[in-house]
Amino acid sequence: MLLEGKNAVIYGAGGAIGGAVARAFAGEGARVFLTGRTRAKLDVVAEEIHSAGGAAEAAEVDALDEQAVDEHADAVAAQGGLDISFNLIAHGDVHGTPMAEMRPDDYARPVETAVRTTFLTSRAAARHMIRQRSGVILAFGGSGDPMRDYYLGGTQVAFEAIESMRRQLAAELGPYGVRVVTLRTGGVPETIPTGGDGRAEIVGGIESQTMTGRAATLEDVGNVAAFVASDRARTMTAATANISAGALVD
User: Fold this and answer.
1) What is the spatial distance between Cα 30 and Cα 159, in angstroms, rounded to a whole number?
2) Taking the complete model, does pTM exceed 0.90, yes or no?
3) pLDDT tens for residues 20-65?
4) Which fold has domain 7-242?
């Protein structure tokens, strides 16, 4: 198993991507610590993991709350170390409104949220990983490049902010044996709400941008995350894992 004996914290584990990553990590032997603001969603993921024979613990943690993040990280580290940290919380993005018509708060919200939560959770993990002289911090993003056919508000700026932080973290933490990597997709169709107006068009747009005619699935995201978090990817840091099927060209 790729992650046997590892302790992994997943922020936003009640969401579609967070849940997929949690199941993949647990399937590879990690003990996963599921966090989020809605306990009921976390319990569903935890039960799925338990049913499959995995180990999971759920806790309500607001990943924007400094004290809550630090206390939870300390509690995990006390149970054998904190080996993997992956922040997958939602950023409060507002899509569909042209920038020329957006309210300032709606534009800035995802940027402010992404910067604060990524800093808090990365800092909490780094403090323990530095002492351990090992660990992996994962981030999730997309392309910060302009997209003419979509109104994405502050989303692209938020992605760029995460990438800037990832680059600096990798440089500062590398000497301690800590790796920092971003997973990038061109969009995961399964995360688009069903029944909504324009869903088929959005999914078609995501798939049409790929080189293979298919976009990443939730299972794909989980599997790649598990590999990147494992010791088999020990030389991978200050980098992005591009799982966009060619939609994002580095």
Assistant:
1) 27
2) yes
3) 999 999 999 999 999 999 999 999 999 999 999 999 999 999 999 9
4) Rossmann fold (3.40.50)
